[in-house]
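Chain X:
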Amino acid sequence: MVSELGLSLDEIFVLGGRSRSDTDGLDVPGRGTAAFVQRASDRRSIELESGVRWERLTAWNDADIEFMEAIYEVGGASSPDGKLVRHSGREFGIVLSGTLGVTVAFEEYVLEPGDSIFFESTVPHRLHNEGDEVVRAIWVTLGRYGADERSVELDNR
């Protein structure tokens, strides 16, 4: 969805129903220290038809960082098979459970619980679960705001 719309995940969360003043705890007076806590029961999330759910782990929007829990159902993927995406920024991830396949350029990596990865988001990439259990991972993307995101056909020639 973010690929097709050319938006950051935070922009999608805002479009999902709350105004910036509702989701940006730093701008809401009277919240005190609670503005810095994101309760699990109150997380904003996005469900993709591709079997992926992203849950924001911050109580506010931040133009420079996306901090989320990524859940990949069995067969779920960040983009269709054979298509890689690229955008501005850098990505950091750690797998909590399951087995996550990560394609970066033409290299394929298989991450198991406790494994982590870093890559420049400008390099074409795809994340996918081809295992037999749900993948849960913590994911951070720095510097993606205003990204020029594109799908790229995977060609192994």
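Chain Y:
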Amino acid sequence: MTGDREPIGVIGVGWVGLVTAACFAELGHPVIARDILEEKVDSLSRGETTIHEPGLDELLARNAERLTFTTDMGELLSAARLLFVCVDTPPTRSGDADLSRVRAVIEELPEGSDHVLVMKSTVPAGTGQSIRRDRPGLPYVSCPEFLKEGSAVEDFLHPDRVVVGADPGDEAGADAVAELYAPLGGEIVRTDVASAEMIKLASNAFLATKISFVNEIANVCEEVGADVAEVARGMGLDQRIGSAFLRPGIGYGGSCFPKDVSALKMLAGNSGYHFQLLNAVIEVNELQKRRVVGKLQKHLGSLLGKRVALLGLAFKPQTDDMREASSLVLAARLEGEGAEVVAYDPVAGEAARELLDSVELRDSALAALEGADAAVLVTEWPEFAELDWAAAAARMARPLLIDGRNFLDAGLLRNAGFEYEGIGRAVEGSVPAGTAE
């Protein structure tokens, strides 16, 4: 380790843990990061990572001398007092958060330890109280992460806010955590542990609600001939509403929103409260992923034997994350209708290969579009906006494109010879419901 500052410990070097470790090192702190997977630790020790996150590789390379990766918990405990827990808490079959990895970390801490456990992992409200009940005297701080995949480094180094939750008796640990984040300039929200845990879940649930709401509005817009882009723009100018997360599409995915919405729903249910709004948010999101199939059938009739190209597979651009990606549901539904599915993603191809073993993966967008009866833009990668769409139309059996993210210029596509349909935008030549022809 290098430097005069006290080392920081990070437990779990998945996406959150690795970004956390790299960014603390960028701030000048020596960091020791521990993971149970030896191959991952060996790879990171060589300066190699398979995680696609803009800016992360540069941070790891620039701060290599400050970063130590290990599988040895004893090495971590002897070097660092502040321990940021960044292990995965995936949903169980019931929808509850799986806390087995969190519990495994706690079991490795020696009795009477004065290490400060800083919980970055997303956990249900009440987890901190449960840990303190099982391990009385263990200093515990809740510091949930608010990182977006594709901009996680920027989010960490320029936060809107940093939430630091601590209960009576743990103020010293909370002070130490707040001091670490103070140079970043975001507002430090000091609160109790249960409230800090709820802030994370409530924030993601609210953002997911905005997405499902605007998708419902988009569906109504299609029926009445309105343009959801104009509707969302007009709504977003109201400062009480704001424009963020008012972009319609084919549903949210990734590692946070589906898991956290489900976890909050289950937390409420386990507490005796029926969270009806979140039930609707989840239902709308799942139905939205399937609406594209109906759009294709409207144009093509039966999809049996039709070749459909999916442009983009990751749940969002600038990441290779396939967790809860809309492409997974869409590909399965298309194959269920008898379609042949071919796909291209500039980054997530390898990650998708194991999940979409029956889908033909191509190494370019134009190759994926070759001979296709239709295309669906699933992920709004910037390169798709720069594609030679006239050349693409010439390669296709039928130049039909469903823009699942309203990302492309409809006029440009139609001038290139495409039948174009977006989400929540009237189809050219269609008659709104309830009007006379």
